[in-house]
Structure formats: structure tokens, C-alpha cells
Amino acid sequence: MNAGKLRVGLDIGGTKAHAVAIDVDGVVVEQLRLPTGFGADAVLGTAITAVSQLAGLVGRPARNFRSIGVGIPGAVDSVTGRVTHAVNLGLENLELGRGLNEEFGIPVTVENDVNAAAFGAYHLLGSAPRPGAPSGVDSMAYLNLGTGLAAGLVLGGRLWRGSRGTAGEIGHIPVDPNGPLCPCGQRGCLEMMASGSAVARQWRSNHPLPVLALFEAADAGEAPAIEVRDRLIEHVAAGVRTLVLSVDVEFVVIGGGVSSLGEPLIGGVRAVLDSWAAASPFLASLELSTRVELVPSGFPVGAVGAALVGQIEGAPHSGSTEHVAGSEAK
Q1: Which of 129, 210, 228, 232 lies at 20 to 30 Å from 264 by C-alpha?
Q2: Which of 321, 320, 313 is nearest to 111 (CA)?
Q3: At a CB cut-off of 8 Å and minimum separation 6, what does 209 contact?
Q4: Opening angle at CA 307, ends 60 and 52, nearest 5
Q5: DSSP letters for 58-124
Q6: At 295, is the secondary structure helix, strand, or coil?
Q7: C-alpha distances in angstroms, 41 versus 20, 34, 48, 96, 211?
Q8: For residues 128 and 113, is the Cβ–Cβ distance under 8 A?
């Protein structure tokens, strides 16, 4: 295997890092998972170990890889590779791009994790469009439903970060002025209604997957669970509607930990969108329920997207002009 034609993608999360090596067609040829660790030294060490172990799996030196891309939470300078304010990783200021470049001597691109996953979802749509969809998807949004809620946008085949790096932060759009206080300082934000943390706040459970426990309880007919489940699904649908109405993307792809619910989630969201369309000729004309997809179970959307960021955008590595993108919420 020619490592010089392979790109590495790292999806670094709060507890684990998922690493992939992809070929020129974006196909995953090797992958692995590692615990992330906490703090700057641990996170950089995890990234270095992941790249080195991938090199071992493909049987070539790591310096022969074409590039390294990293998706990571926090405020990310996508040009210099600096990561700040990644609270869940214990990072205040980490020169992640520089550290990886110095270790391996190859181009490194660092991007906010949700934005990186948006590229992975974009690649997925382009390589395997759904039946009846137009060939060549030009725009899409990736709606990440995890502990929080945020979106990444790909417009005209390029990542759209916005003027100050906050494009896609729809989790902090207030939807209930009398709702719970959000960590951002506003009340009733969408994230407080449609996210893993929203479910945990409203449905106490010792289950390792609280959202799954919620849906099981709702299916069993427990009225409080039904109320929380329906509220979650309705607000996820509201997130889809917001993305289409504000940016008019062709597709919204839902991913993140909550998306592991699969058909009960996507089926419920489509049903809500169809109910709104039945009451509104305008919404009916937008065909919202046909424009929402779910990341396939097991597809490493964040790691693949990280590997593709530099390739698609032609991004430089480790320093030139500064552009700060992303936030802890994303």
C-alpha cells in the first residue's frame, strides 16, 4: 500500500479519538480508536500515537502520509492549527497543528469537530446520493446532535464558517423565552430542547444511553417519557427547518451520538416535518422531509471529514494568515 496516496483523519472527542487512513477516493482503508486523555500533552500524545499506529497498520513510515487532518472541539484557528477553550479536553491553548507537523513533517489541517464532520457528511452524500436525489450535491448542513447541538455548513462545495466563525451555531437560537437558562446566557435555546444534555435534564436515568432509555420508556407507554421524546423530535425538526429556511441547503444530514437512535429518530423528524407541511403550503413546497438524512451507523463521519478538509479546501498548514473558527458548543 502506497502511504503517499493516503490521508489521515483524526476525530478527537472528550473520551476517545477515532483515526482513519483514507485513499484518493475517500475510502477508509484502516482505522483505530484510542482513549483521548486530558490536557494539552495528553491530547497531542494521543494524536501522535494514532498517526504512528495507522502507519504501522499500512506498513509505511508516517512521514509518507500525504496529510493529516484533525477535527477537535473548541475554538480552532483553522490556518495555524491552534486550539483554545476546549474545556472538555482540558485545553486552553494547544498548538496542535504545529506539534503534529514538527513530529511528522507533513501538512496538517486542524478544524472544529462539527465542521470537519460536515465535510465527512458532504463526502458521504456525494459518493452515495439517495435515490432520486440530484447528482452533484452543492450544499448541505450537518446537524450534530450530541451533548450539545450545532451545525456545520458546506456551501458551493466549501466549508462556510461565517464572518466570525459562528455559522451553524443554531443551538443558541432561543426557541422558548421562558425555557431553561442556557450556559450561553440566554433562555430556552434550541440546544436546551434538542440534545443529549436536554434529555438528561428532563429524563433521569442510570442507563448508559439515556436517550435510548427515554425512547424505550416512551414505546412502553410512559406518559412523561412520551412528552420528553416528542419534544426532542419536534425541536430536532425545528433545527432542520431553521437550516433550510436560513441557508436553503439541499440536504440536512443528522449525526452525533443522539443519531444512533436510527429510524425512530429520523422517522419521527420526517413525520413532524410532514405534519407542518400539511398545514402550510409554503413549507409543503420546500419538501423538507425529503431533504433530511441520517449518518449511517458506524460511518466515521468526523474522522473522514477531518482527512478531507485540507484536500477539499486546499488549506495551508501550520501558520499563515489567521482565521478563527468554531466554538466549544460546536
Answers
A1: 129
A2: 313
A3: 260
A4: 35
A5: HTS-GGGSSEEEEEESSEEETTTTEEEEEGGGTEEEEEHHHHHHHHH-S-EEEEEHHHHHHHHHHHH
A6: coil
A7: 22, 15, 11, 10, 33
A8: no
